[in-house]
Amino acid sequence: MNFIDLARFDALTLIVFTALGLLSLVALTVAIFKIRQFSRLGVGRGPAAESIVGDWLNGRADQALGKAAKRDTVLARILQAVFTALQARPDDTSYAEELGRQAALVELATMTHRMRVLETVVQSAPMLGLLGTVIGMIDAFGALSIAEGAVNPSVLAGGIFTALTTTALGLAIALVTYFLANWLEGRIEGERQSIETLISAAIHGRVDPGAGV
Fold first, then answer.
1. Which residues contact 157 (CB under 8 A, 6 or more apart)?
2. For residue 208, what are the CA distances in angstroms to 78, 100, 113, 170, 212?
3. Mean local confidence (pLDDT), 159-183
């Protein structure tokens, strides 16, 4: 496969290539940041949270609070808020539910932070590729309009090559970013569903924490 000779492109096309390169760098940086952030936050560690709720529902409040106090997962931090509220106001489940939902909103806001950047890359990369297409076609038809006699096919081919290259690059960046964004959004949605299920179980399905096993 031959390398692309950038010298054959005009200044406007090179600007488009540069913008597409910056977009791909931004998308890659954000994706790596989010993956590391999710790992640090403990996203997706549902079984550990289920064990915490299981201890709470079976009256092992101290064990449940001890596990939740480690705050090593998203669900553990939310459950800690719920359990603390339930201990402070045992008969006021609405208070516990409100604190749990506030903690959940904080966690979800952290998880969704900068996801809009990936959405922006998905939308803008094809548009930049299309801009390169228009520039290439303008060059091709411009050469055609000023040509005298027979048109040199290589002149037209150069403009068409520019158009196809920028379009392909823009679509490739958008597709890769789209799949990365969908995967990350899927993890966020899975965590959101787990949060709702476990808050409901801890509040409405609980037994008396002091009752023992």
1. none
2. 20, 19, 38, 58, 8
3. 90
